[in-house]
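Service request form, structural biology core

Requester: graduate student, group of Dr. S.
Request type: structure prediction, single chain
Budget code: on file
Notes: please return the result as structure tokens.

Sequence provided:
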Amino acid sequence: MPKPLLIFDFFGVVVEEVAHKWLYDHVENDVAKHIIATLFVREDLGEITARQCFKELEKITGVKAKQIEQEWLNLGQLRQDTYDFIIKNKDKYHIVLLSNASASFNNKFFVDEKINRLFKKKFISSELRMVKPDPQIFQYVLEHSNVNYSYAVMIDDNLVNIKAAQKIGLYGVHFTNMFEVSKQLEIIAKQEH
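Core staff response, request fulfilled:
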């Protein structure tokens, strides 16, 4: 019998926010917004590697690239509420990951088996050469999750991504915490039955 497909964002949902938080702590807001819209998009698209991104950030901030990487890894702590929800509901839902990120950086988190085992499949933007909110990336995930699902839900901390997912027929749940997400998933389940 088909189960719902939950598509989780990674940074800010499964683990704490990393890049944006670090950036806003190290540069002025206007500079941060420019870097997010340019350098980070290039990294997420796989046009540059995480290492190249860190080197560019070193030039801008004066913080050594290796130190930036380590600080990002330290910031990316597993969110216990999300972890508990996924473990508790692995049989109820098909659970996959969709992250705008560099695979070389993202994969450092999957060395931790506790995190790695959370997802049936992982979709990383730099490997796909497309990023959220492009509707094609959501379509790709639906077509390549290789599961029989009844309906699909995108869980993301970015409203732009939620709205884009909804435009192609997915449900969208804006992440603030898993308690609120759980309530929204219950409402969606009632609508589907």
